[in-house]
Backbone:
């Protein structure tokens, strides 16, 4: 069975997913595209030689009977309306983060999906498909380090666009840690506090950088995440889990080591796209395979999108108040069971 994909948003990540579905992965075909910028949609069809219909908007794309899956890669504020319409039409959805820009918007998607009666939506939190995070989760679940007590994490970018603002450190950057860390330790978040260390001279006037997020879970684990988006030296993702019996640490991306000019070294990536390239492939392949074999996606779901939105709101509030802010989630409906470790990595 080949799943027909209709793509809403043919920007950077939209084209990357089109490329992997068309040229790398098995089981999917792009049959329709749309973008508010129709010229971008047309260029994309030409660029990849697609046999796909170019639609003027998401509504008509969703209505196409050849579209089994709606791939939502437009900008964040447009996601909610497309996802709700697709779910109401009974289409599967792969939605890039954010699921919606507000917790209320995520809840509207949750309600639409529960009303439909079957899980249709997966959110693009690809870190759960990164082999390093999968190994960390397996080690924790096997009890290799005993009970996890502390997580030290860091998300560092060499530099960011001048339009990047302090709250974007949460909604664009920390959001991936927000999703992957509660999944890693299978716990819910309780509070967050933000500390601003001395500001780097490399950040623009309007941006507070670096930032330190201190998050407590309901189970008592303390997580600290450094977000430092002008670190200069590279794109660097760190995660170390301290347990009662030992420590596990995210592996560094595979790279040759070199001996040169009296130095023993390893190069560090500079572009986020390459750090999780394999994870994006595994994520989309797993999404397609799960639909075919199990009838519904098995990855991060609408409830995970809701958790991310509520947590992000609390983090932004904590940036503004400097206080410890509560992360208050509604009770998880039985419809949304815990998502498990990715089986295909
Ligand atoms: P982008 O290059 O700006 O692409 C977004 C595209 O969607 C643009 O072509 C934009 O058109 C179009 N668009 C905007 N509103 C639309 C609407 N209502 N209907 C149809 N198309 C619409 O952005 P991107 O980097 O690809 O990001 C897209 C989404 O993916 C964002 O939500 C982003 O957070 C997410 N993302 C996730 C990851 C990840 O690691 N999982 C990585 C990158 C991006 P115009 O250019 O004309 O506005």
Residues:
């Amino acid at each position: 069975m080949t799943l027909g994909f209709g793509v809403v948003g043919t920007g950077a990540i939209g084209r990357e997913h089109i490329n992997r579905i068309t040229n790398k992965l098995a089981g999917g075909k792009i049959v329709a595209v749309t973008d508010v910028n129709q010229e971008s949609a047309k260029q994309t069809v030409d660029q990849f030689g697609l046999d796909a219909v170019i639609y003027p908007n998401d509504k008509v794309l969703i209505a196409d009977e050849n579209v089994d899956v709606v791939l939502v890669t437009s900008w964040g504020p447009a996601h909610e309306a497309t996802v709700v319409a697709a779910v109401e039409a009974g289409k599967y959805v792969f939605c890039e983060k954010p699921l919606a820009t507000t917790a209320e918007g995520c809840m509207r998607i949750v309600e639409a999906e529960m009303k439909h009666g079957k899980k249709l939506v997966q959110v693009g939190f690809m870190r759960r498909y990164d082999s390093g995070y999968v190994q960390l989760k397996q080690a924790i679940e096997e009890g290799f380090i005993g009970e996890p007590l502390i997580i030290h994490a860091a998300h560092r970018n060499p530099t960011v666009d001048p339009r990047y603002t302090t709250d974007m450190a949460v909604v664009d950057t920390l959001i991936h840690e927000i999703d992957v860390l509660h999944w890693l330790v299978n716990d819910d978040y309780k509070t967050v506090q933000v500390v601003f260390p001395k500001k780097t001279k490399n950040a623009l006037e309007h941006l507070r950088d670096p930032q330190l997020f201190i998050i407590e879970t309901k189970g008592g684990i303390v997580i600290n995440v450094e977000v430092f988006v002008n670190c200069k030296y590279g794109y660097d993702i760190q995660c170390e889990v301290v347990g009662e019996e030992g420590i596990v640490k995210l592996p560094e991306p595979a790279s040759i080591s070199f001996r040169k000019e009296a130095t023993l070294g390893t190069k560090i990536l500079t572009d986020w796209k390459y750090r999780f390239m394999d994870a994006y492939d595994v994520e989309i392949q797993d999404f397609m395979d799960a639909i075919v074999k199990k009838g519904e996606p098995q990855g991060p779901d609408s409830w995970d999108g809701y958790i991310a939105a509520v947590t992000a709101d609390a983090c932004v509030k904590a940036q503004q108040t400097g206080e410890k802010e509560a992360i208050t989630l509604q009770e998880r409906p039985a419809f949304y069971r815990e998502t498990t470790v990715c089986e295909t990595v």
About this structure: The pocket of NAP is lined by residues 8-14, 34-37, 40, 58, 73-76, 78, 96-97, 124, 126 (CB under 6 Å). Residues 142-268+308-312 form a domain with the Dihydrodipicolinate Reductase; domain 2 fold (CATH 3.30.360.10). Residues 341-345 have pLDDT under 50 and may be disordered. The CA atoms of residues 303 and 331 lie 10 Å apart.
